Structure formats: structure tokens, C-alpha cells
Amino acid sequence: MVRKKKGDWPGPRKHGGINWDNFENDINGIIESAASQTDKKLTSKLSSLTKLTDKEILNLFPDPSDIKKLSELIRIVKSSDDINTKINQLVDGIEKFGRIIIVLLSRSI
Questions:
Q1: Hey, is 19 helix, strand or coil?
Q2: Gap between the Cα atoms of 42 and 67, Å rounded
Q3: Number of compact structural domains in the chain
Q4: Domain residues for 102?
Q5: Which of 64 and 39 is assigned the larger pLDDT?
Q6: I need a surface site. Which of 8, 46, 76, 96 has the fewest CB within 10 A?
């Protein structure tokens, strides 16, 4: 195959014998796997603090960022702070916790 201009090779990008497309795909797979394992560990930890099972948490909050927000909300609720401090923390974070609170209340009511 003849190349038309510099850098115009068809197929995978290679430099120094390394197939960078495969390397990037491998890295992305590792990152996704690590994120999945982290989500499972976090979910397991959260379920130990609530009446929810791991499966229920994952079903209610499939987005990892929601699981992080749930953990922050649980920290506030389970803290030893007085009720007024907890209320103030919830008010300060209502935009962040709004979706989490609605999902939890919808399940309970």
C-alpha cells in the first residue's frame, strides 16, 4: 500500500512497534473494570449502612455519581451531629441530594 502523505497510513496507529489503538482499548477496559469493582465495593459498603440490598442500591442508583451522593447523604444522616446541623447540611446540599432524596422517598411511600 502506498501512502499519499506523511501520517496517512490505513489501519491501526503504530509507533515504536506498539499498536496504540489496542493499547488504548486495553486501558479503557481496565478503567471500566476498575470502576465496576469500585462501584460494587461502594454499593456493598452502603448496603451495610442501610436497609437496602446491594441489588436495590444498584437498581435505584445505576449512575456511580448518584451512589457517591447517596454515600454523602448517608454520612449526614448517620452522623452524631444534632438535628439542626443535619438540617443545615441537607439544605446546603439540596440541589445535589434532591434526586437521591426523591428516589428514596418514592421507594418508601
A1: strand
A2: 8
A3: 1
A4: 17-108
A5: 64
A6: 8
